[in-house]
């Protein structure tokens, strides 16, 4: 084995002693993690454990009360809202349980939207959008609006929109929670496959062990802390089933 093959991918995103509360209720109590380039990381735990709050802090949607979050050498938590929004339009992609597509827009218009907001020309944005719809097997839906699609189709379009900017990190919060088992597994398998092809790191928040099994590593958040974390080494890697 060569020295290059033994070298871990670089850390692309890290959190150090992150604290976040909602009024008097602690959500995160000093969480520290790291994410490697191209890695699929599952963040699991019961409802109300703080896992979604952690995702929103890592993605720059929420600003933590204490601690530090770094994307490469950039400290995310001290950026202005405008700069954090720019990160989410470019280097970061976000995907939620209910795809949150714009109901008045067609599939291709929904997927093209992040590119248009970043200043791309309409023709180029729509060409890229159609390509990404094709990658997720829904190219034939380009002209349809969300109300004309099934739940699984809508979520495929939402994943295409999250990936169209070719983000370095994709944040997915219960991305299959609103789908039936078969549709959910199909969407998840496609998402992980395309993310790996694009070398996009994925933070996958879920309470479902079946979904977590698509990740290469899992951490469990409970009561605002990482369960089982060694305080002397907060970046303990816990290998689980390799992504399918």
Write the SSE topology.
Blueprint: H1 3-6, E1 11-22, E2 25-36, E3 40-44, H2 51-58, E4 66-71, E5 74-75, H3 81-89, E6 92-95, H4 107-117, H5 122-135, H6 151-163, E7 169-173, H7 181-197, E8 201-205, H8 209-212, E9 217-222, E10 225-226
Parallel strand pairs: 3-8, 3-9, 6-7, 7-8
Antiparallel strand pairs: 1-2, 1-4, 4-5, 9-10
Helix pairs in contact: 4-5, 4-6, 5-6, 6-7
As laid out across the biggest beta sheet, the strand order is 6-7-8-3-9-10
CATH structural fold name of the domain at 9-88 and 207-238: Rossmann fold
Uncertain segments of ≥5 residues (pLDDT<50)?
A: 1-5, 230-244
CATH architecture name of the domain at 9-88 and 207-238: 3-Layer(aba) Sandwich
CATH class of the domain at 9-88 and 207-238: Alpha Beta
Shape: globular
Series of secondary-structure elements, N-terminal to C-terminal:
HEEEHEEHEHHHEHEHEE
User: Rounded to an integer, what's the Rg over CA atoms?
Assistant: 18 Å
CATH H-level superfamily of the domain at 9-88 and 207-238: P-loop containing nucleotide triphosphate hydrolases
The pLDDT mean sits at 87
Q: Helix content range of the residues, please?
A: 25-40%
SS strand fraction: 15-25%
Largest sheet: 6 strands, mixed
- Give the termini separation: 24 Å
Count up the helices.
8
Q: How many strands in all?
A: 10
| Sheet/helix structural class | alpha/beta
């Amino acid at each position: 084995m060569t020295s290059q093959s033994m070298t871990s991918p670089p850390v692309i995103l890290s959190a150090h002693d992150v604290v976040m509360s909602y009024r008097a209720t602690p959500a995160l109590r000093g969480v520290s993690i790291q994410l490697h380039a191209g890695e699929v990381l599952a963040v699991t735990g019961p409802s109300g454990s703080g896992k979604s709050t952690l995702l929103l802090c890592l993605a720059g949607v929420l600003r933590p009360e204490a601690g530090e979050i770094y994307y490469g050498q950039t400290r995310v938590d001290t950026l202005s809202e405008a700069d954090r929004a720019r990160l989410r339009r470019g280097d970061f992609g976000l995907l939620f349980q209910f795809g949150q597509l714009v109901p008045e827009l067609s599939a291709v218009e929904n997927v093209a939207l992040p590119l248009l907001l970043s200043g791309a020309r309409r023709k180029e944005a729509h060409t890229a959008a159609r390509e990404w719809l094709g990658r997720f097997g829904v190219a034939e839906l380009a002209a349809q609006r969300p109300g004309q699609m099934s739940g699984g189709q809508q979520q495929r379009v939402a994943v295409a929109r999250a990936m169209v900017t070719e983000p370095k990190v994709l944040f997915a919060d219960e991305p299959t929670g609103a789908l039936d088992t078969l549709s959910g597994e199909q969407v998840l398998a496609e998402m992980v496959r395309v993310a790996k092809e694009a070398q996009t790191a994925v933070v996958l928040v879920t309470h479902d062990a079946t979904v977590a099994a698509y990740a290469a590593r899992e951490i469990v958040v409970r009561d605002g802390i990482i369960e089982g974390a060694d305080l002397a080494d907060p970046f303990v890697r816990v290998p689980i089933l390799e992504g399918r």
